[in-house]
Write a structure and sequence with these properties.
Elements: E1 2-13, E2 16-22, E3 27-28, E4 31-33, H1 40-52, E5 56-71, E6 76-89, E7 102-109, H2 110-116, H3 120-137
Parallel strand pairs: 1-6
Antiparallel strand pairs: 1-2, 1-4, 2-3, 2-7, 5-6
Helix pairs in contact: 2-3
Length: 141
């Protein structure tokens, strides 16, 4: 099994969170592979910028998730281990840069985002991240 270390961001602006819809119709958070010599926090910030054209700042770590899938191109199972960061953006502007990978995106109220997010571990990540974000930034709901 190929194990890949990844990093991503749960980006908040006020009481909204940024989501991307990939080519499979799954609503996800921005993330990418951490390559040799790169720092996870820098990769997470770069993916948020690359995938959504969002300037954000990291305010905390959010935790870890992982998932496995079978790579058709590699003909072997892959495990992505992702470290997540809670991020804050100053405005709701975004632009999908990677049209080949993503078909939609947006900032959503957290309740709406919880319904959209495809995977249960991402729902748990969003729930935990939003509580932490509110504690750190004193955002009123």
């Amino acid at each position: 099994m190929l194990v890949r270390n990844c990093a991503g961001g749960v980006v908040f602006c006020g009481n909204k969170v940024f989501l991307l819809k990939n080519e499979k119709g799954e609503w996800v958070f921005p993330k990418g592979i951490v390559r040799r010599g790169e720092l996870p926090n820098e990769v997470a910030l770069a993916r948020v910028k690359d995938e959504g054209s969002i300037e954000a700042e990291i305010i905390s770590t959010a935790g870890h998730t992982n998932y496995e899938f079978f790579s058709v191109t590699r003909q072997k199972p892959v495990c992505n281990k992702i470290i997540w960061y809670i991020m804050r953006s100053e405005n709701l502007q975004y632009k999908i840069k990677e049209q080949d990978k993503f078909v939609d995106a947006g900032y959503f109220d957290v309740d709406e985002a919880m319904k959209l997010v495809t995977y249960s571990q991402d729902k748990a990540l969003l729930n935990l991240s939003y509580r932490k974000y509110k504690d750190i930034t004193s955002v009123a709901v």
